[in-house]
Design a protein that fits this description.
With 209 residues, the chain is an alpha/beta fold. The chain has one domain. Strands 8-7-10-9 form a 4-stranded mixed beta sheet, with helices on both faces. Strands 1-6 form a two-stranded parallel sheet.
């Protein structure tokens, strides 16, 4: 199939489509009408499973499929649920493209990293308070929490997500992307995350940039 880098994609003005396996279902489709991936982004992707499989069966089918059509060597991710722009690159090697597995693995790796002090200091106090709630929950013994041994004492990017840790997929939202990152070469997709519970009013808004 066709393989494009970000500049080629922009010059050719190609149309992009997200692999249905990692595309967030629309409200019309609902959550049960398509095969999807069930995953808590705080955990390694080996804990993910297909909606059509038993929860005990780790996700494998489709992991190496292209994340987009046409196939791309690199994509970017953004979201209302976090303040970063995340680059996802294909594994090194000729003819390699970004796969569905690359997307999820990159997100998990990114969210597992420690927040730098200057970044933490830049957040408003009200937002820090809501992150504090998530920090304590993520290191608790609650079902679905990573726990202290896995998440450690430092504040991680996964804590910044607050309760928005349930993977729903990617969407193409050109208006949102234009507002957030402008029009850089290549493709920027929006990550859709769902709250694990009804979020308190204090944590419904994304962090101020």
């Amino acid at each position: 199939g066709v393989l494009l880098d970000p500049l080629q994609f922009t010059v050719l003005k190609a149309k992009i489509a997200v692999n249905p396996l990692i595309q967030a279902a629309s409200e019309e489709e609902g959550n049960l009408s398509k095969k999807s991936i069930n995953w808590n982004v705080l955990f390694d992707t080996s804990s993910a499973h297909l909606s059509t499989d038993r929860p005990s069966h780790s996700w494998n089918d489709g992991r190496d499929e292209p994340a987009t059509f046409p196939r791309l060597t690199q994509i970017r991710l953004c979201s209302p649920c976090f303040p970063w722009i995340i680059d996802v690159a294909a594994a090194p090697g000729d003819g390699r493209y970004v796969t569905c597995g690359d997307v999820l693995d990159r997100l998990h790796d990114f969210f597992g990293r420690i927040i730098a002090k200057d970044e933490w200091d830049s957040y408003p106090e009200s937002f820090k308070a809501s992150v504090g709630q998530a920090y304590r929950w993520n290191r608790s013994t609650a079902r679905g929490a990573p726990g202290g041994r896995y998440y450690g004492p430092a504040i991680k990017r996964g804590d910044i997500l607050r309760s928005y840790t349930t993977w729903k997929g990617l969407v193409l939202d050109e208006k949102y992307v234009e507002e957030q990152v402008g029009s850089p070469p290549g493709v920027t997709l929006v990550v859709v995350l769902e709250s694990r519970d009804p979020p308190p009013a204090a944590i419904t808004a994304p962090p101020e940039s």
